[in-house]
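In response to a reviewer's request, we include the raw inputs and outputs for one of the modeled complexes. The two entities were modeled together in a single run.
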Amino acid sequence: MLSTDEDILSQAEAWAKAGKGVAVATVVETWGSAPRPVGSHLVIDEEGTFLGSVSGGCVEGEVVTEALDVIGSGKAKLLEFGVADETAWRAGLSCGGRIAVYVEKVG
Amino acid sequence: MDLKLLSALNAARADRKAAVLVTDLDGAAPARLVTDANLAGDALEEPIRAALRSGKSGVVGETRVFLTVQVPPAQMVIIGAVHISQALVPMARQLGYDPVIVDPRTAFATPERFPDVALKAEWPDVALPPLGVDRYTAFIALTHDPKIDDPALLHAFEKDCFYIGALGSRRTHAKRVERLTAAGASPEAVARIKAPVGLNIGAISPAEIAVSILAEVTQAWRQGIA
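The model returned the following C-alpha cells for the whole complex.
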C-alpha cells in the first residue's frame, strides 16, 4: 500500500521517540508544473533513511543531504529547486517547475 | 518542529480531528498547533478556517507563515452488500478508503461474498452510530430498499457527510425525496443526495458503476469538501 503523507509523519514521530535524529522536509511552495503538491513531506533520519517524497524522485537526494546537515545543526533551512539547467550545479526538476522545500529538525 | 507538536498532530489524525500546524518559515515565532479547541480568537483564525475548508496546505497570503493542514482521512460507508459493492470495495481501498458495509439482509451480507471487509449485518439504526460517520465520510446507499436506505440517509444528513449518494433512477429518487421530506429532512439536506449515484459515464457493469461512483466521490473530496 502507498504511504500517505500522514503515515510519513507518524514514522517521523516513531523515529524521534526511538532516539534518532529526524528531519521533516515539507513542500511549502510550488511554481509552474511541480511533481508533488504543497504540503507533501519527506522525512529523514540521521542515517539518511527516508520515507515519502517532495518531488517524485528528482531532488530527494539533495534534500536528504541537506536534512542531515539540519539534523546536525538544528537550524531549519528553506531550499529552492528549479529546472535543471538553471541550477546546473545541483539537482533540478526535469518537469520545468520550481519548488520550495522547508527542512526542519524534529525535537 | 517540536516533537510534542508532531505527536499532537499525529494524535489528532488518529482521533479523526482536523488540525493545522502553523510554522513561521523565518523562524521568527515558534510553531504551534491549532485545532477546534483553540481556533476561535487565533490571530490567523480566518486563513486557518479557509485552509480547513479547502483541506490544502500553503503559505498564508503574502506572509512567510506556512500552514500544514491535516483533515482526517476520508472513510466510506456503503449501505448494501450488493453486486456493485463487491466491485466498489477493492477500488475504494486503492483510493485510500477503508470501506465498511452495512446490510441487515443476512443473505447478502455474508463473509463468502465479502471476504476481508468490515461487514455489519444489522439495520442502519444499530450499525451506524458506532461507526463514527462524520464530515469526512463518503456515504453510499445501494440497497434500493427504502426500509434500509432511508434511515441510513437520514443518518448521513445528520452527520453532514461530504458525499452522499444513492442508487436509483430519477423516478425512484423522486419518490425517495418525498419520503425523506415527510420524515423531516430539510430540502437542503435532500438536495445533497447524488442520484442517480456516480458521474454519468455510461457505466453498465458493476465495476463501471463503481468507477463512476468513486470518480464522483473523488470530485467531492478534492473540489467540494468546503
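As requested, we also summarize the result in words. Residues 5-106 of chain A form one domain. The interface with chain B takes residues 2, 4, 6, 9-10, 12-13, 16-17, 24, 26, 28-29, 37-39, 76, 78, 102, 104-107 of chain A (CB under 8 Å).
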